[in-house]
């Protein structure tokens, strides 16, 4: 016997037991349903759900303004809604190369949105993210552990600019102060389907 029919029979039995009138002192009463299970807490990943969908595209240019690399990031939710998955592809000379694969998730122990990804060189990145709705900024602090075992600590800011664009920068703190080392502007391309 499969679990689905057993659950269906059990649910019908509960409904019948709750809704069947009972006689008490000559009056007919309907028993009140048992208190429902409290609704689950809001999913903290909803704060960054705006990133899901379409393809986020940025272009890296040389000193003459020519595009050298097109960066394409696809962000999608998981089936259980407790992961946000992403892949980033670099396109150079019409040749795409998968660069990053990773996930965002909510860690109930640390009470933070965390992210993890690896890159095509075998580097591993782990960090945490906080989104401010007031400034529309996602602040991400993270450590990259390179394939040679060396690590560095960085910060990135993802600043929303409307519904389909954001400015992204990466900063280093080698001098005791966060200084920008790289930035790009991403625009979302939505598929026609």
Any overview of this molecule?
With 193 residues, the chain is mostly beta strands. The chain has a single domain, classed as Calycin beta-barrel core domain (Lipocalin). 9% of the residues lie in helices and 54% in strands. It contains 1 helix and 12 strands. The protein has one helix at 3-19; strands spanning 21-24, 27-30, 55-61, 67-77, 83-92, 95-107, 112-119, 124-132, 137-145, 151-160, 165-172, 179-189. The strands form 2 sheets. Strands 3-4-5-6-7-8-9-10-11-12 form a 10-stranded antiparallel β-barrel. Strands 1-2 form a two-stranded antiparallel ribbon. β8 (124-132) and β9 form a beta hairpin. The longest helix is centred in the N-terminal third of the chain and has 17 residues, at 3-19.
Q: What structural keywords apply?
A:
single chain, 193 residues, mainly beta, Lipocalin, ten-stranded antiparallel beta barrel, two-stranded antiparallel ribbon, 1 helix, disordered N terminus
List the helices and strands and how they pair.
Layout lengths: L2 H17 L1 E4 L2 E4 L24 E7 L5 E11 L5 E10 L2 E13 L4 E8 L4 E9 L4 E9 L5 E10 L4 E8 L6 E11 L4
Antiparallel strand pairs: 1-2, 3-4, 3-12, 4-5, 5-6, 6-7, 7-8, 8-9, 9-10, 10-11, 11-12
């Amino acid at each position: 016997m499969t679990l689905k029919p057993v659950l269906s029979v059990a649910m019908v039995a509960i409904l019948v037991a709750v809704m069947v009138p009972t006689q008490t002192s000559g009056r007919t009463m309907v028993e009140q349903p048992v208190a429902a299970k409290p609704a689950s807490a809001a999913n903290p990943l909803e704060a960054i759900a705006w990133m899901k969908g379409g393809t986020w595209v940025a272009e890296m240019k040389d000193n003459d303004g020519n595009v050298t690399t097109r960066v394409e990031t696809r962000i999608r939710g998981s089936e259980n809604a407790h992961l946000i998955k992403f892949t980033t592809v670099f396109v150079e000379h019409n040749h795409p190369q998968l660069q990053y694969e990773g996930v965002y998730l909510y860690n109930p122990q640390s009470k933070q949105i965390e992210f993890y990804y690896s890159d095509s060189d075998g580097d591993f990145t782990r960090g945490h993210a906080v989104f401010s709705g007031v400034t529309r900024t996602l602040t991400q602090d993270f450590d990259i552990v390179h394939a040679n075992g060396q690590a560095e600590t960085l910060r990135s800011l993802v600043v929303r600019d409307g519904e389909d664009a954001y400015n992204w920068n990466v900063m280093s703190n080698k001098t005791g102060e966060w200084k920008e080392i790289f930035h790009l502007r991403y625009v979302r391309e939505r598929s026609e389907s």
